[in-house]
Amino acid sequence: MNNEIRELFSLEGSVTIVTGALGLLGREHCRCLAQAGAHVIAADLAEERCREFASSLPTPSRGYFLDVTDADSVRWLLDAVMNEFSRIDVLVNNAGVNDMFEDPLLALQESMFEYYPLQMWKRFMDVNVSGVFLCSQVFGSQMKKQGKGSIINIASTYGIVAPDQSLYRTPAGEQAFFKSPAYPTSKGAVIAFTRYLAAYWGPAGVRVNALSPGGVRNGQDSFFVEKYSSKTPLGRMANPHDYRGALIFLASDASSYITGENLVADGGWTII
Q1: In the chain, count of helices (H) and strands (E)?
Q2: What span, in angstroms and rounded, lies between the C-alpha atoms of 217 and 220?
Q3: Is 172 exposed, middle or buried (0-12, 13-18, 19+ CB in 10 A)?
Q4: 88: closest CA among 58, 62, 68?
Q5: Active-site residue, 183 included
Q6: With CB atoms 3.0 to 4.6 Å apart as the test, which of 47, 123, 140, 146 could cross-link to 65 if both were Cys?
Q7: Distance (Å, rounded) from C-alpha 15 to C-alpha 125?
């Protein structure tokens, strides 16, 4: 590969914060960023596990506790990163919550829009939207001072199109649950916020883009995997590592003239 092209995608020596670092995709994000040369700040709610995970990465990286909904927690992490590395180059807003119901017997009723709990709605907005806002505000302000940076907000295909509720219907025709109204609403808000912030901070040299993954295979029922795959032109669900190239592209200088965009990596799911 031409050295000039290689340099475009290199993150050698950059400092990258990944929120929700211990999740299925969060771990993959951290690994690929470190493999591209970045010092990774793996941030999540379990501090000791973050430290252990960060120590396994191929570059000098660090693991920290972070509650994205707590302003003091976010500001503390900013101070910690600046004290050690003196800069922040990339922020991956990956932390988020998805539909989880404590009682499987009540999942169907609670997931119905008519009965969906307001408390769950507020939790989604707090983490998936306010968390992205707060981390972008605190860490992005440092990028503004530096005159350069890349913020990558992890959105979703369900921020673009409505959930297909038939995917959650068993072969016997029973609806296991409904994809809730809160998840797609929160991810749609992330995409809109991405455009706002890209326009606002463009003159400061801070790029802001969204990455919208499709469904990732992770132990789902076989009927779900089959249905989902049949609706995707590539004929399968994503593997966790399928987003590495898109993430490195948005984080690196290879995308230096791209901001305010939503990079959809869904195997073609949203084109049908």
Answers
A1: 10, 7
A2: 7
A3: exposed
A4: 62
A5: yes
A6: 47
A7: 28
- Write out pLDDT tens, residues 119-174: 999 999 999 999 999 999 999 999 999 999 999 999 999 999 999 999 999 999 99
Sheet architecture: strand order including 149-154: 62-65, 39-44, 15-19, 90-93, 149-154, 206-213, 262-265
Nearest Cα to Cα of residue 231 among 161, 145, 164, 160: 164
Report whether 91 contacts 33 (CB < 8 A): no
Q: Compute the distance between CA of residue 150 and CA of residue 89 in angstroms, rounded to an integer.
A: 6
> Tokens 């003091």 label which residue?
72
Helix (H, G, I), strand (E, B) or coil at 228: helix
Ranges of residues in the chain with a pLDDT under 50 are none
How far is it, in rounded angstroms, from Cα 30 to Cα 235? Answer: 27
* Number of residues written out for the chain: 272
Which is catalytic among the residues 158, 168, 183, 228? 183
Taken in order of first residue, the domains within the chain and their CATH numbers are 3-271 (3.40.50.720)
Q: In this structure, what DSSP letter does residue 125 have?
A: I
CA distance 40 to 57: 8
pLDDT tens-place string over residues 18-41? 999 999 999 999 999 999 999 999
